[in-house]
Amino acid sequence: MFKFVSMRLLQSIVVMLVVGLIAFALFRFVGDPINNMVGQDTTLEEREALTESLGLNDPFIVQYGRFVANAVQGDFGMSYRLRQPVSGLIAERFPATLELSLVSAVLALVLGVPMGIYTALKPKSFFSRSFMTISLMGVSLPTFLIGILLILFFGVTLRWLPTFGRGEVVELGWWSTGFLTSSGLKSIILPAITLAVFQMTLIVRLVRAEMLEVLRTDYIKFAHARGLSPRLINFSIALRNTLVPVITIIGLQVGSIIAFAIITESVFQWPGMGLLFIQAVSEVDIPVMAAYLLLIAFVFVVINLIVDILYFVVDPRLRVQS
Amino acid sequence: MSKELLDIKDLVVEFPSRHGDVTAAKDVNLTVSAGEILGVVGESGAGKSTIGNAVVGLLERPGRVGGGEVFLEGEQIIGKSQAELRKIRGKRIGMIFQDPLTSLNPLETIASQLIGTIQTHLDLSDADARERAISLLDQVGIPDPSARVDHYPHQFSGGMRQRVVIALALCAEPDVILADEPTTALDVSIQAQILDLLKKLVREKGVGMIIITHDMGVIAEVADRVAVMYRGVVVETGPTAKILGNPDHPYSRSLISAVPRPDVRLHRFPVVESIEAAGECKELDLNTHWLGKARDFGKSDGPLLKVDNLEMIFKSGGMFGGGKSEVRAVDNVSFDIRDGECFGIVGESGSGKSTIARLVTSIYKVAGGSINFAGTDLTKIKKRRELNVHRRQMQMIFQDPFSSVNSRMKVRDIIAEPIRFHKLTSSEAETRQIVDDLLDHVGLGAKAAVKFPHEFSGGQRQRISIARALATRPRFLICDEPTSALDVSIQAQILNLLKDLQEELGLTMMFISHDLPVIRQMCDRVGVMSKGKMVEIADTEELFKAPQHEYSKHLISLMPSYSGLMDRDAGQAEAS
């Protein structure tokens, strides 16, 4: 177990270094950082001095090493656009994105997994059939449209819920949370649902397909032949076997909820990282883009690590044989 | 009350379909008493498994019991609710399934599966249930049961897993055990052990057992009485010696005569007529036909295939190390195959038989050694195109007729593919004509060309595979377990076809099988494989009469003897 996890950690570090290289390459190859910083009337000497002071004349590998060393300490330089440290900008917005992602991931899982099980166990029931039809719409409707429709209905027509922003937030140290105020809680409902709809329908279909597959296997048939109760067969034997492949996909989906909340954040003007990233792209704010890239890579690496460990817990076949 | 434990009376099982009900079992009458083993034998689709499933209420939808009664110790159990049947399943009727690799939940320890089942039926505490689980494992012959009980299924070999399956079936001391092909997925030596175990359990515990199988060897080994099924009907029931030695029904007769004989080599297999007609077979004049032309490969000196010191190693493990392991699948193997002979390779699963076939056809790259085919060392050839010249001359027929033909292609295109690939004809019209002729020749008929593979049975698909292999006009045919997925009657037809083709076309064959009687009937010389090594090469008759190596002796001793099998020499005289 220890060997396995340390091996995975080592692999993760390699992945992070490669992503770091790509992020670093942004500085070198997307525009000239000096041009981005100085005005029209800066003299050549001043530019030279700035280049020298920023260490841009050093060999590539030295610069990369410095970039990595800084990144490890959380220093991603200054945003070109906002003239603030990137790490501060991200720290400010990261809680918003993470809270939104967590709520929608929990929503998707809590609704999606039981629905998947139900539609697999009772594939012919009216409810299953109508749900599968509706879920097709959930998969095919674009996220922004769902968001706009929700805003129109609950925000504009019924006026039940706020349509943009996070509402009031409470600062807990460097973390700002919307969970502790009623306006904050109200504000998160619509964007979280919007973000969860697609993931949920995907999870339902995935769990259903896997479960149907498992229910056809010999060991389920043999369990019936031994007279075990249907509850034990369905929820202990079948469900666990269903979850083995489902865990990977769900893990990746949670990662992509965090990484690609961009559209939802734009629709709801949610002050998260996605919005920051969109603005950074339109203004060629390379330090922000690089930091975002690294952060998302980090999120995926961590989730993959968790998925691997979960696999280990669920599936005995992966454990090293003694 | 009679001593009959299970009494099946006039059981009818139907599968409703769009074209009316399909009757899978019709008016089936079977009985089994305490301490008795009843064998139910028949070919695939005969309805054997359906009966077992119907008895315990596990028919797959939309199947249903259309009539009849089943008495378990005098109590009618057809028509009981699922909740009531659950109390019967496992507790009074235990079941054993075919494939031990898939019968166990891979995510739970043996202990938890056993204890779960025990506590479902018996009111025992956790500790008592665990004790019982360990003693059950001991009874089914698992060494060191108190440690092994906490292992997961993947930590057991196939034979050991089947023992665990049997232990699970025995959890609540059932009166009747239904064993559905309990040894079909196992090697011969493991099969013998499992059959011994089942026999012992029946005698000691006085349970009644129904063994459902297609294998006459299993029947001869364990059954007290036999019921022969044919298309959903029990055609004959009687004591094993009577059914095997002197069956009344013509179907039983032909079924038994189709079993390959382990004792004497015959020129041809007796063919079962009542099962699957081979279709009209138009004879081709091979002297003038395309198929017979270009067969002059030039006489080469020495053997056609000469394999020296062949090595193959499978490595596993990731790029970052960890769990790296090596399996020596083929270990220093050397053999020759002479022009025109049929060379057999026999061995248990995992012995490296199929790997050799794949090495010879250059599907795998060798790790060491040389493969000389008609004087050229295939391992030295680097260019694909050069290799293809040789590949055209050697073709392969695979084990599984269902996955070895592309199900999305029409039969014509399947067979024409090698002709087109090697550009063996000058026009598409000629290709089509040749495909039609080939289909006629292998006994499918030219009309098959426009159909898709799923419209054919296993045996017919294997004929498609053979036609495809012949389409390149090969001189060397590699058959990798060509009939082990087929019923005996179909097996007899396919093997006869291969024999005929070999004779007509002067083919050289490498015939891989785990089935000794089949090897005896087909091959001139045999190599015996064990754990990647070829332990003995001998003329077939010599090997069967006087095996030299310990392993060969062991294998041959496990061959079913069929003592008292019907005197088939008379039948053979009629056939020839």
Could you characterize what this model shows?
The complex is a heterodimer of chains A (322) and B (576). Chain A is mainly alpha-helical and 322 residues long. Chain A has a domain of 200 residues: MetI-like (MetI-like fold). Chain A is built from 13 helices and two strands, in the order H-H-H-H-H-H-H-E-E-H-H-H-H-H-H. The longest helix of chain A is centred in the first third of the chain and has 36 residues. The model of chain A has no long low-confidence stretch (mean pLDDT 84). With 576 residues, chain B is α/β, with parallel strands linked by helices. Chain B folds into two domains: 254 residues, Rossmann fold, CATH 3.40.50; 277 residues, Rossmann fold. Chain B has 21 helices and 20 strands. In chain B, strands 6-7-8-3-9-10 form a six-stranded mixed sheet, sandwiched between helices. In chain B, strands 16-17-18-13-19-20 form a six-stranded mixed sheet, with helices on both faces. Chain B has a four-stranded antiparallel sheet with strand order 2-1-4-5, with helices on one face. Classes of the chains: A mainly alpha (322), B alpha/beta (576).
Observed structural traits:
heterodimer, A: 322 residues, mainly alpha, MetI-like fold, two-stranded antiparallel ribbon, 13 helices, 2 strands, B: 576 residues, alpha/beta, Rossmann fold, 2 domains, 6-stranded mixed beta sheet, 21 helices, 20 strands, 35% helix, 25% strand, disordered C terminus
Q: What oligomeric state is this?
A: heterodimer
Query: Looking at the structure, what is the overall shape of chain B?
Result: globular
Percentage of β-strand residues of chain B? 25-35%
The stretches of 5 or more residues of chain B where confidence is low (pLDDT under 50) are 275-280, 318-322, 569-576
Overall CATH class of one domain in chain A:
Mainly Alpha
Name the overall outline of chain A. globular
Q: What's the helical proportion of residues of chain A?
A: over 70%
- Name of the CATH class of the largest domain in chain B: Alpha Beta
Indicate the CATH architecture of the largest domain in chain B: 3-Layer(aba) Sandwich
Largest interface: A-B, 29 and 35 residues
Q: Name the helicity range of chain B.
A: 25-40%
How can the largest sheet of chain B be summarized?
A: 6 strands, mixed
Could you give a short account of the major beta sheet of chain A? Answer: 2 strands, antiparallel
Q: Count of DSSP E strands of chain B?
A: 20
Strand content of chain A: under 5%
Unreliable spans of chain A are: none
Number of strands of chain A: 2
Please indicate the count of domains of chain B. Answer: 2
User: What class, by secondary structure content of chain A?
Assistant: mainly alpha
Using only C-alpha atoms, the radius of gyration of chain B works out to: 26 Å
